[in-house]
Amino acid sequence: MHRTHTCGELRGKHDKENVTLSGWVHSRRDHGGIIFIDLRDRYGVTQVVFDPKHNKESHSLAERLGREFVLKVTGYVRPRMEGMINAKMDTGEIEVLVDKAEILNFSETPPLEITDKVNVNEDFRLKYRYIDLRRQSMQNNIISRHKIIKLIRDYFDKHGFLDIETPILARSTPEGARDYLVPSRVHPGSFFALPQSPQIFKQLLMVSGFDRYMQVARCFRDEDLRADRQPEFTQIDVEMSFVEQEDILKLIEDLMKKLWREILDEDVHTPFKRLTYAEAMSRFGSDKPDTRFALELIDVTEIVRHSDFTVFKSIIEKGGKVNCINAKKCSSFSRGDIEELETVVKTYGAKGLAWMKMADKLESNIVKFFSDSVQNELIKEAKIEKDDLLLFVADHKHFNSDTIAGQLRLHLGKKLKLIDESKWDFLWVIDFPLVEFDEDEQRHVAVHHPFTSPKDEDIALLESHPEKARAKAYDIVLNGTEIGGGSIRIHKQELQKRMFNVLGISEEQANKKFGFLLEAFRYGAPPHGGIALGIDRISAMMTRNDSIREVIAFPKNKAAASIMDDAPNEVDEKQLKELHIKLDIVKKEEKKQ
User: Fold this and answer.
1) 111-132 burial, b if ≥16 CB within 10 A, otherwise e?
2) Of 126, 368, 408, 571, which one's alpha carbon is 20 to 30 angstroms from that of 283?
3) Which residues contact 574 (CB under 8 A, 6 or more apart)?
């Protein structure tokens, strides 16, 4: 028997018991011949004592121990001496006096300190991830993720959902991010695709009569590099039949309430507030607004239309929009502060940043272009008071103006410390646009996916004004971060064909890409809808981590590579021949020549 107890289990009630513990040597201290070892496993740390007067043989072995040696000890539990109790340790009132010890394995000096104070490059941590994962904070992250997923499974099981696996190897249906392709050896020249989501399969399960489906689903997207994204990720995938939007929102709100109560012992108030997409963009400049602080956008287009400021006037004449933000009591901002804000807006595509300060009256190098009446309207609309700073963002596209101003708002929220980091702020964003126009492809594309249903009252707009049609789509947002999204699906074949037509997908293309789904719709598809929740993001937020890599055991780095096992890697010529593949890659060395 390698252990009778774990290293986090023993307490005062175990006094005088004979025990066996196994774990890693966390630290070693020699106090005048008596050696103290902190023995660690994932459950905690126990102090074990090697006393030469008690057992010379085990003491001699202890003198050879190094950090991260794998050690097994047998001895008896005793209270620590008076004044030596460690209240910060769960096992801090006891220690184990060692009768016998055995080195189960030796360890070289680890490349990383097994401490939560580690401060090294993230790529170095990922290279030695198996060492990094020994740290208590990392183990707590992974344990918390396990508890979150278990609770979610139990919740859906209680509500009658079936946990059904869907294929990992499927056909490529490009309509979104790039697929990861898997060549078929048995079918030369053909490829499987790894699923970007189980979308089509979960809809087919609804057609099959499994009216409540869920899955902890692995998903894959070959996206361009973006901050804090992973090429493979995990989502809680949910689909229901004979439901409307309200049913799904209520189900997920109750899940969040249960998660926060049982995992964090915190209350989440329901129902969550709701914002339409149009309202979220106009007030906060984001479809995932952080509403933990105010500082809302103010549309002053109609006011400044009557100014003589040519920059604004020319943008408005092109159908553009002018937003402003009233940064309360910030008139003391220096030139450097203003330049910092200008850099922020330029990063997101603005040509510049206009501003006015309120002293006894509005002041700036552009005030002369605004008449007294226009200034008075600005003061009234923006609720300007003494020492306020008014910041203007303008763009000939409304969406751009809102988005740039939204990013400026977020920057100011952090700079001015307006955000209550202890707050959990849930909300729903609903009524998204059904489609948007892609300038590169010169066609409409689905905002969510092509199976999202338009709102009933907007179906008539599909052929005439598709850009005005709203979707039965919804995102759940927490503290300015989208943690999930879904929609009510199209379940009638005729409406699905109309949607494909709006997207410029011909009947031939539709049958080629989604033929089996359209075929299924011919045989009585029920009304259905669902949602997917990002388990990586939810786990990171619940454990107060900024990066999802902290809650994934073996993540890829920012370059979508695994440094630990050197993936992706080249494969040998034999494997390629079996797959009937010949590479045509110009190596960097050849390019230089």
Assistant:
1) ebebeeeeeeeeeebbbbbebb
2) 368
3) none
What's the pTM?
A: 0.92
Pairing assessment for the beta strands 443-446 and 435-438 based on DSSP bridges? antiparallel
Question: Which long-range CB contacts under 8 A does 250-257 form with residues at least 24 apart?
Answer: 251/159, 252/476, 252/484, 252/531, 252/533, 253/426, 255/152, 255/155, 256/426, 256/476
Instruction: Using the predicted structure, report yes or no on whether residue 592 has a pLDDT greater than 80.
Output: no
398 by Cβ neighbours in 10 Å (0-12 / 13-18 / 19+) ranks as middle
CB under 8 Å to 56, separation ≥6 — which residues? none
Could you tell me the two tokens for 578?
């079996």
Domain assignment of residue 60, yes or no: yes
Q: Mapping DSSP to helix (H, G, I), strand (E, B) and coil, where does residue 152 land?
A: helix
In whole angstroms, how far apart are CA 554 and each of 127, 173, 217, 230, 557?
Answer: 10, 28, 17, 11, 10
* Interior/surface letters 373-396, b for 16+ CB within 10 angstroms, e for the rest: ebbebbbeebebeeebbbbbbbbe
Residue indicated by tokens 């991010």: 177
Helical H runs in 442-531?
Answer: 493-502, 507-521
Q: Rounded CA gap, 272 and 290, in Å?
A: 14
Could you tell me whether strands 44-50 and 94-105 are parallel, antiparallel, or unpaired per DSSP bridges?
parallel
Question: Final residue of a domain: which of 398, 415, 432?
Answer: 415
For 322, the domain range is 293-415
In a domain, 29, yes or no: yes
DSSP string over 520-569:
HHTTTPPPEEEEEEEHHHHHHHHTT-S-GGGGSSS---TTS-BTTTTBS-
Residue 337 DSSP SS3: helix
Mean pLDDT of 290-314: 95
pLDDT score recorded for residue 176: 67
